[in-house]
Amino acid sequence: MDNLLQPVLQSYPNYNVKKCECPSYIEIYTKSKKEIVLVYDNLKNKPLTNTINKTDNKVTEELELTGSPLKLDLSLHTVFDDTLVSDEPQLWNKEEALHQPIGVEKVREIANLYGQSLASVSEEDAVPMWILTNPSDDGKPLLLTVQSDSHHFTRGIVSYQGSAALDDVDVVNLIEEYAEQEKINTEMINVLIDCKFLISGISYGCHSTDELLNAPQTGLTELHCEWPEKRLQTPFISCKVHLEQEVIVGHLMSPCNAIWKSVSALHNINQMLVDMTAAGYSTVELDRAIVRNIIPGAKRVNNSKRLNNLLNETETYAYTSEFPAGGCLCVTEDTTTLKQCMGTMNSNGSSNDFTYKLWDILRDCETAEEVITLLLQALKFISSGKIRPFIDANNKTYLSKLVLKLSRGHSQATKVLKNLKTSPPQALSLVAQVGAEKTMWEYTKIMSLLEHSYYIAGIWTAESRSHESIEQINQTIQDMTMGGDFTLNPFDTFNGGEHSIRLDCESFCAEDANELTVDDFASLKKHGLVDKKDVNEVPLIADEIDISPWKNLFMKFAQVHVCLEHLYRAETCLRADFASLKPIASRLLEHYVSEKSPIRTVGQLMCDPIQKISMPIANNIVQDHLKKPAFWYRVELIRKEAAKDMGIKRDSKMVYVLSQQPVFPPSVWQNLEPSVEDAAEITTMGEELKYHITKYTYLSNEVVSEITL
């Protein structure tokens, strides 16, 4: 391939000639992201990217003064770099703003030179070349392409056709024009029309993680529709509809962070425990070991104050606790939306269990040292016997047992606290075990609003029936219930496991009739009737907690969380109810929670927070959206197979793109008449919406290499 490009590189050293995936302004015509050779001129005036680095300190100071930059962060960067994407939807990517067009005469020279190199290359080895062209030349060309090989002479051109209202564009006329060009009947032409509706948000592409998590928009929701009818108006009953969506995992404005904070903290703690196991805990600097990832603009919290408030609150209702059926605060019989569920979880948490509330505080600690310090502070206060914290009866973690024992005046309290202080791995694993169980419980409750709890519970176990589809499992349940009411408890098999969870019974604090109460213990101790060590007391905590299953469990958390982010955004943007979201949930779970899932670790999402999905969706869910004007329309005309030997004997294609916004970046579009500013104004004349029209013509003739005499 390099040999093919060598003549072009030598003859035109001042131009950018590179192999890459199709940029957006080519993909919209070809529907392909295959590798191409792209040629464009360098931007004459270099962007102010260096200025950003020089002013980083100044920007940081301004952010500290102005507080949370949820809406401000990207806007500040655009002051220094006009290549950043604006908050308005657009068809070109930020990187493409650097692509400068080349005059048409030079473009033809480059295409001819590359075409000569392709003349001896097989079709499989030939890589198409696309050249960005200055549209100020005659015919207003935007792109020129050469895709020839040893047996085909293949070329194409994209040109600007002006602007028009949608009703003024007659698809039948476009078909007749193409038929006349190819000298065939209109019946010999296949027509495919598709369009895209922008429902909400924009795509930020390749920004840094900090910029993405602070971006003004939390993602992108679009509908892609296609139909064979010969009209531009969307047939919203018969067209095929795909939901195309981006989410930014961990975005500061996402309510799903109520649970994502647990997942990211568990990931960081688990990594510490792995490092401690491998090299000894002394190799990990606790005061620098990050638990909560610091995001610029995120709200700083006083965790010590939060812990004191929790202890005081627990002291108020020492022996009683208000709790709902199943122990869950955020999902009740009145829960009708994910927004309502996540809002409640953000404001009130998900449970009244003391250790769960404690985890919500500890996961927000910045360092491992802060986690251990606050944990010991809480346990020391509990061991004083002043409070009797509420523990859900189904909470089987070691920390919950420890809290119950210490609150009843266990004689080994001082020793336990001392051991935890000198054994960071044990303290961190105690905390992480609670976080893992709580997170698993929360995902199960939330996702069970949209998918049967039997399937959701199976995700967390290695024995889950992964070979069966969600539909098969639901059918099995339907067959078992014979269509009647039937409650299947999916957690019966988990009772003896380390990650034991059950949701279908009421929470309560089990009392041992033979156990001393706090008052009894204090009275006996006062009169010297309690030994310093009771030989009958069981050990408070295990010597070691097995963390080996956590790696796979946390991967499942990451996979399910991406589903939750997509579902929340779909609910909000499409205004969909639970009935409409259930088929979407099934498709998301089948895609993300599988052996072929693109999500393999929590760290992957922390480094690359943008996640995209494209899936078919029922038209009735989005019918109201389909009645509006689309962001762009595309009309593709191509010869049928039966027309191969009719008219002009060649392969050909014609593609029209009608778009509300320019397909090409300003460096190209500004060369058109009218100017960019004028073009923006003429897109709406009165109440009539105008569309920019560009046309791609593709032609391919067979080359006869030998002439038979």
Share in β-strands: 15-25%
Major β-sheet profile: 13 strands, mixed
Distance separating the two termini: 35 Å
Categorize the overall geometry. Answer: elongated
The computed structural class is alpha+beta
Alpha plus pi helix count: 25
**What quaternary form is this?**
single chain
Low-confidence residue ranges? 45-85, 463-467, 480-518, 520-539
Number of domains: 2
Specify the helix fraction band.
25-40%
Average pLDDT taken over every residue: 82
**Radius of gyration, whole Å:** 32 Å
- Count of beta strands: 13
Pfam family, one: Zwilch
Protein name: Protein zwilch
Family: Belongs to the ZWILCH family.
Subcellular location: Chromosome, Centromere, Kinetochore
Could you characterize the architecture of this molecule?
The protein has helices spanning 2-11, 24-30, 49-54, 56-66, 73-80, 104-118, 171-182, 209-214, 257-279, 303-316, 338-348, 354-362, 368-383, 398-407, 413-422, 424-447, 453-459, 470-481, 518-526, 550-574, 578-592, 602-607, 623-626, 666-669, 676-682, and strands at 15-21, 35-41, 129-132, 141-146, 152-165, 189-201, 219-227, 240-248, 610-616, 632-639, 651-659, 684-685, 688-702. The protein has 709 residues and is an alpha+beta fold. The chain folds into 2 domains: 2-47 and 82-249 and 629-702, no CATH class; 257-478 and 508-540, no CATH class. Strands 1, 2, 3, 4, 5, 6, 7, 8, 9, 10, 11, 12 and 13 form a 13-stranded mixed beta sheet that branches. Helix 10 runs parallel beside helix 13 (368-383).
